[in-house]
């Protein structure tokens, strides 16, 4: 398995990165890329040339699989990706949440709320009572506060 990550950048930064990767190293004004995280491991700085942008490490709502091919026929799974580094312009705010609400594509917008079942609201007293009854039954006893009806 390879180590991979998703880097989401603003369009202007994407053009500069593409130019840096496609042109000869001596002809580009943006000669360096750097990503530095602070001690919390979730926020940091992305640098391209002399410009600096704020960056955040966010958890994706689902795991994304990545594949590659050597012969344009057979796909080989290379990684499971569960996090994304999001780079923001200077005016944009840094996200407060640890999890990114939306996936990578438009159909996954607000995926957690729309596609996954919510956890049920449980009364802690009921859970404790059922747990106690199950422990009594496993120990050979009976559950408390139940009525047994005979239909004969």
UniProtKB/TrEMBL annotation:
Keywords: Nucleus, Transcription, Transcription regulation. Residues 1-145 form the TAFII55 protein conserved region domain. The keyword Transcription applies. It comes from the Eukaryota. GO terms for cellular component: nucleus. Its main location: nucleus. It is found in: Nucleus. CDD domains: TAF7 (cd08047). PANTHER family: TATA-BOX BINDING PROTEIN ASSOCIATED FACTOR 7, TRANSCRIPTION INITIATION FACTOR TFIID 55 KD SUBUNIT-RELATED. Belongs to the TAF7 family. This is TAFII55 protein conserved region domain-containing protein. It comes from Penstemon smallii.
């Amino acid at each position: 398995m390879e180590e991979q990550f998703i880097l989401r950048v603003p369009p202007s930064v994407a053009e500069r990165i593409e130019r840096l990767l496609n042109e000869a190293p001596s002809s580009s004004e943006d000669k360096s890329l750097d990503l530095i995280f602070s001690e919390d491991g979730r926020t940091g700085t992305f640098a391209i040339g002399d410009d600096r942008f704020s960056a955040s490490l966010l958890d994706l709502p689902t795991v994304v699989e990545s594949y590659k091919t050597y012969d344009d026929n057979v796909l080989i799974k290379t990684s499971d990706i569960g996090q994304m580094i999001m780079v923001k312009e200077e005016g944009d705010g840094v996200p407060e949440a640890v999890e990114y609400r939306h996936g990578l594509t438009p159909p996954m917008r607000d995926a957690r709320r729309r596609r996954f079942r919510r956890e049920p609201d449980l009364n802690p007293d009921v859970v404790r009572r059922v747990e106690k009854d199950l422990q009594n039954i496993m120990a050979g006893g009976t559950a408390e506060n139940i009525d047994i009806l005979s239909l004969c």
